[in-house]
Design a protein that fits this description.
Layout lengths: L25 H16 L4 E3 L9 E4 L9 E12 L2 E6 L6 E7 L2 E7 L5 E7 H14 L4 H4 L5 E2 L14
Antiparallel strand pairs: 1-2, 2-3, 3-6, 4-5, 5-8, 6-7
Bound molecules: nickel (II) ion (NI).
The site of nickel (II) ion (NI) has 6 residues, from helix 2.
Length: about 170
């Protein structure tokens, strides 16, 4: 268990496409554990492997809802999405910034878990948003790219709720 360094915007690793995971070995298990530690320590609700400098298709998500979270998604593929939600988003790799992003309100994703068992997951609201945000990271996409307009500085706001929802 270890906290890893979170890469921030400007680091080229965040703009690269990740590779498929073919086998979950000891190193990958360690990476997943570290990603959870790093995400929780930073009060995030999701983290993608490139955010800790690893170009592999792995994300972890914990929106703070009840079971069955938290989730590990390996090689995630969004199968279906519908509806629309417009809301605030932030990212651990863009510290201090937030913006408005329109995302599907529902997504169905297929992924492997940490034992390489295939599963499907449906998410709505915040979970749907987190899945989309993290899957974007695996393709080198940051929320700045898909935000409605310019990002804002969190320090300009009176109330801080948005910064607790970093991904
Ligand atoms: Ni992010």
């Amino acid at each position: 268990m270890a906290i890893r360094n979170i890469r921030t915007e400007g680091d080229a690793v965040l703009r690269k496409k990740c590779r498929e995971v073919t086998e979950v070995n000891e190193r990958i298990h360690e990476l997943i554990n570290d990603m959870f530690d790093t995400m929780y320590e930073a009060n995030g609700v999701g983290l993608a492997a490139p955010q800790v400098g690893i170009l592999k298709n792995i994300v972890v998500i914990d929106t703070g809802e009840d079971e069955p979270e938290p989730f590990v998604l390996i090689n995630p593929e969004i199968l279906k999405s519908s509806g629309e939600q417009t809301g605030e988003e932030a990212c651990l790799s863009l510290p201090g910034l937030y913006g408005t992003v329109t995302r599907p309100n529902y997504v169905k994703v297929r992924a492997y878990d940490e034992n390489m068992n295939l599963f499907e997951l449906e998410g709505e609201d915040l979970l749907a948003r987190a899945i989309c945000h993290e899957c974007d990271h695996l393709n080198g996409v940051l929320f700045r790219d898909v935000a409605d307009g310019e990002l804002c500085q969190a320090s300009d706001r009176e109330e801080d709720s948005g910064v607790n929802r970093k991904k």
